Amino acid sequence: MPSAKPLGSLSVSPLSLGGNVFGWTADESASFAVLDAFTAAGGNFIDTADAYSFFVPGNKGGESEKIIGDWHTARGNRSDLVIATKVGALPERKGLSAANIKAAVDDSLARLRTDYIDLYYTHYDDESVEVSEIISALDELVKAGKIREIGASNISPERLQESLDFSTREGLAKYVAVQPHYNLVSRDTYEGPLRDVAARYGLGAMPYYGLASGFLTGKYRPGANVDSARSGKAAEHLATERGRRVLAALDQVAERHEADQATVALAWLAAQPTVTAPIASARTVAQLPSLMALGTLTLPEEDLKLLTDASA
After folding, report:
1. SS (H, E, C) the chain
2. Which residues, other chains included, contact 198 with Cβ-Cβ below 8 Å and sequence gap of 6+?
3. To pair with 96 at 20 to 30 A between CA atoms, which of 138, 188, 239, 264?
4. Mean pLDDT, the chain, integer
5. Res 230: pLDDT
6. Are strands 16-18 and 279-280 parallel, antiparallel or unpaired?
7. What is the pLDDT of residue 260?
8. Quick check: is 190 catalytic?
């Protein structure tokens, strides 16, 4: 994987490895194998959340963080990693009150077996809390050395703007990252006012659902049966004209570059304004190469236009 990209004071690989599958569709040994292969190929940026994966029967949340913590402790490579986690969606630590943020970060630090979190996101905005309270709490954690940088996921353009204005006015920690839902079949979830705010302030975007729950890997076709926990969601795109157009364009570009459709979809994302590192997860080592190949595929203008037009 080629050179890292700047994100605030951090330096991150072009792909962020999604940790949502760890402790869900990937058990501990499968997760360790994926993390080993990711870092061996030059990746350093790992994305998780305290809420992963309370939504799975038998889980209570924190499973992904615990696996990542146990893995880097066993490997002794914490200082080589950029670990991002999130606060606000775990049922027992819901919301963004200052007290909750401070309690949640300590819980995450314990599970991750680390003294600091490189990038700490608000998972979902909590509009019942003033931005002044949220930013002040995050700033305290930065000053205490528990967090290096802060980001916001699932936030409105208005609240993001208000947060950045408050940070600037008060001289407090400022968001350097935004994590939107964004991919070739979901563009209006980021493009427009939210991206404009990110561009104006130089925020890096880490899109989630970069492969639209697997649809953009190209493995979902009419009549195809795919063994995946997310196949229902992915298959919905097949029913839309845009989904079929995007698939056809992906096939064309993938063939031209002798690349996988997943690599092409992520390369399109990586080429979009403000995007620093798309997030994609792998539950097996076999799924990783097409994701990591993002680092070596730069699409020419005509291919980017073909994909952009197909996804309009």
Report:
1. CCCCEEECCEEECCCEEECCCECCCECHHHHHHHHHHHHHCCCCEEECCCCCCCCCCCCCCCHHHHHHHHHHHHHCCHHHCEEEEEEECCHHHECCCHHHHHHHHHHHHHHHCCCCEEEEEECCCCCCCCHHHHHHHHHHHHHCCCEEEEEEECCCHHHHHHHHHHHHHHCCCCEEEEECECECCECCCCCCHHHHHHHHHCCEECCECCCHHHHHHCCCCCCCCCCCCCHHHHHHHHHCHHHHHHHHHHHHHHHHHCCCHHHHHHHHHHCCCCECCCEECCCCHHHHHHHHHHHHCCCCHHHHHHHHHHCC
2. 160, 178, 204, 205, 274
3. 188
4. 96
5. 59
6. parallel
7. 98
8. no
% the chain with pLDDT above 90: 92
Catalytic choice (52, 124, 190, 208): 52
Q: Which residue has the tokens 């403000």?
A: 274
Note the pLDDT tens digit of each residue in 242-270: 999 999 999 999 999 999 999 999 999 99
Quickly tell me which residue has 């063994």 as its tokens: 227
> What does the pLDDT look like over 173-199, one tens digit per residue?
999 999 999 999 999 999 999 999 999
Instruction: Tell me the pairing of strands 10-12 and 5-7.
Output: antiparallel
Tokens 């309370």 belong to residue: 54
Residue 152: both structure tokens together:
């916001």
Q: Whose structure tokens read 């809390």?
A: 129
How far from chain centre, in Å, is Cα 312? 23
Cβ contact 13:277 at 8 Å: yes
What does the pLDDT look like over 27-40, one tens digit per residue? 999 999 999 999 99
